[in-house]
Amino acid sequence: MRCVTDFSSHRPDWWRQAVVYQVYPRSFADADGDGLGDLRGVTDRLPHLAALGVDALWLSPFYPSELADGGYDVADHRDVDPRLGDLADFDALVAEAHRLGLKVIVDVVPNHTSHRHVWFQEALAAGPDSPARERYVFRDGRGPAGALPPTDWQSVFGGSAWQRVPDGQWYLHLFAREQPDLNWDHEEVREDFRTTLRFWSDRGVDGFRVDVAHALAKDLAEPLRDLGTPELFGEEALDRLPPGAHPFYDRDEVHEIYRDWRRLLDSYTPPRTAVAEAWVPGARRALYARPDELDQAFNFEYLQAGWDTEEIRAVITDSLANARAVGASATWVLSNHDVVRHASRLMLPPGADSDAWLLSGGRAPHVDERAGLRRARAATLLMLALPGSSYLYQGEELGLPEVADLPVEVLQDPVWEQTGRVRKGRDGCRVPLPWTATGPSYGFGPGGAWLPQPPSFARYAVAAQDGVAGSTLELYRTALRLRRKLLEGEELAWDPDASPGVLSFVRHDGWRCVTNLSDAAVPWPPGEALLSSDPLDGDGLLPPDTTVWLG
After folding, report:
1. Is 227 exposed, middle or buried (0-12, 13-18, 19+ CB in 10 A)?
2. I need a surface site. Which of 108, 144, 484, 508 has the fewest CB within 10 A?
3. Which residues contact 81 (CB under 8 A, 6 or more apart)?
4. ∠ at Cα 372 (368, 376), nearest 5°?
5. d(CA 211, CA 13)
6. Alpha carbon distances (Å) from 258 to 58, 254, 264, 292, 296
7. Cα dist from 354 to 362, 417, 425, 434, whole Å
């Protein structure tokens, strides 16, 4: 095996092949004992990330927020929520991360603010037709006395995307009502986010994850147009409309915003990177990662793929082709703060409704935790062998399953109430991490945790897996260490002779990854087994739901 250049340290394009670890701060580690994770807690646990072998951490929002949407309702984009610390704590985190060789990426939330943001409070006080309201999307209602919303647009979280204020006007919120959408046609909005990008770049951050990157530009020409059918309300509508034709998703005008950002990000040495959260079809998504825009865009097709050979092969092939077409590298992700953890999700039957499964408390259908973990480990080792960047979500290195049976009285996600309690929401993947096998919050902090952890978390704790051969934590550590030695180039070649139900591809120098997605053991090609997601029997057969790397 030959070592290659360390992408994480010396190259301005370190992100092309990086492994990035997502930290959801409120659930990562609690240093002050109030039950809520904080920045000092993150800093204290950075050695865990360095030992894991990741290249960077991505911090989900830590800004002042009333937590109407888990921190994505931002009251001040250039400060720290006092419950999580202050700017001095943030600076200390960045300094320690850099000392350990870790890059730092922060979330930027440009589509909306909190309703507590000083701008929105000014807009409410100023009244209709005021300059303060032009920073947002205010409109008069329809029908007698304007009592009906301006359009039929629906919120991602359920219900109308419009909220009426006491003076009779309505404001747009594509998400929670506490998250009014900004008007990106307004130059003051654009300049304020330039200031935000400079503020954090000047404090040493290495890049940005752009929340809801595809929704900033909107067709606000009067009269606003209805969508007319529920099938067009969500992001899935982008497959049913001509490219760029949706009134508020993936409009062509959004790319001018990111070209402007790229000029700013390139003014730093080294240039700051950015990755788009853009829930749009693959070829359109790749446009956000053009050289003059945001470097990368999250590949959600891979996350959404079922445990099926042909489906996964097609997603990988298309994703690599789309990234290559614009000169970007591909991205891969299996879990994040918005979806059911993949140790549980991959065990759901094809076509199963994850919302219904969560509402059942994870009982219908029953998911076998051991089988789910086996499949999750195989999926992860497959992902880490692919060309491009891998994004890991906190706790997946422990094999954590979804906490599907959270009592409804503890739920925090606005999805629960806004959908009339028919979607349980995302709290089950945000339960605080277990660091030790004992204690009031399994080492998350000196006290309790803001969401209850199940007793099963004890066996998943970092302390319970550290140094234990075959544990999921040690599998991740070994995989990431090997990946640094093996990774080279951004190409792969599929094995045309792979058995049915098997994904097999070759990387440079003959390094091979083989994943058995079938129900039966299959022969694997000749070669030295460098690492496998579960033990091999030594009989030349690869068990079901297992991945092996061959040298």
Report:
1. middle
2. 144
3. 62, 63, 64, 65, 71
4. 175
5. 21
6. 20, 7, 10, 8, 12
7. 9, 17, 10, 24
User: Which one, of 68, 66, 177, 84, lies nearest residue 413 by Cα?
Assistant: 68
**Quick count: other Cβ atoms within 10 Å of Cβ 291?**
10
Q: Closest Cα partner for 120 from 163, 60, 61?
A: 163
Cα torsion 195, 200, 204, 205 to 10°: value is -120
Structure tokens at 143: 């029908």
Q: Which helix H or strand E contains 506, and what residues bound it?
A: strand 502-506
237 pLDDT above the threshold of 90:
no
- How far, in whole angstroms, is CA 22 from its chain's centroid? 7
- pLDDT tens, position by position, 156-213: 988 899 999 999 999 999 999 999 999 999 999 999 999 999 999 999 999 999 999 9
* Secondary structure (DSSP) of 231-290: GGTSGGGGGTS-TT-SSSSS-TTHHHHHHHHHHHHTTSSSPPEEEE---S-HHHHHGGGS
Residue 417: count of CB within 10 angstroms of its CB: 15
- 195 CB neighbour count, 10 Å cutoff: 11
Q: 3-state DSSP call for residue 427?
A: helix
Nearest alpha-carbon partner for 218 in 119, 142, 136: 136
Tokens of 24: 């959801």
Residue type, 516: N
∠ CA 457-458-462 to the nearest 5 degrees? 90
pLDDT at 1: 29
Q: Which residues pair with 274 in a beta bridge?
A: 208
108 φ, ψ to 5°?
Answer: -120, 135
The kind and range of the H/E element at 315 are helix 309-325
Q: Are 59 and 23 in contact (CB under 8 A)?
A: yes
CB of 436 closer than 8 Å to CB of 442: yes
Name the maximum alpha-carbon separation found in the chain: 77
Joined tokens for residue 353: 């409704």
The answer to whether 293 and 287 are in contact (CB under 8 A) is: yes
Q: Which H or E run includes 529?
A: strand 529-532
Share of the chain above pLDDT 70, in %: 97
Instruction: Please report the sign of the dihedral spanned by the C-alpha atoms of residue 125, residue 126, residue 132, residue 133.
Output: positive
Contact (CB, 8 A) for 334 and 326: no
- 57: part of which helix (H) or strand (E)? strand 56-59
Is pTM, for the whole model, over 0.85?
yes
d(CA 44, CA 23): 13
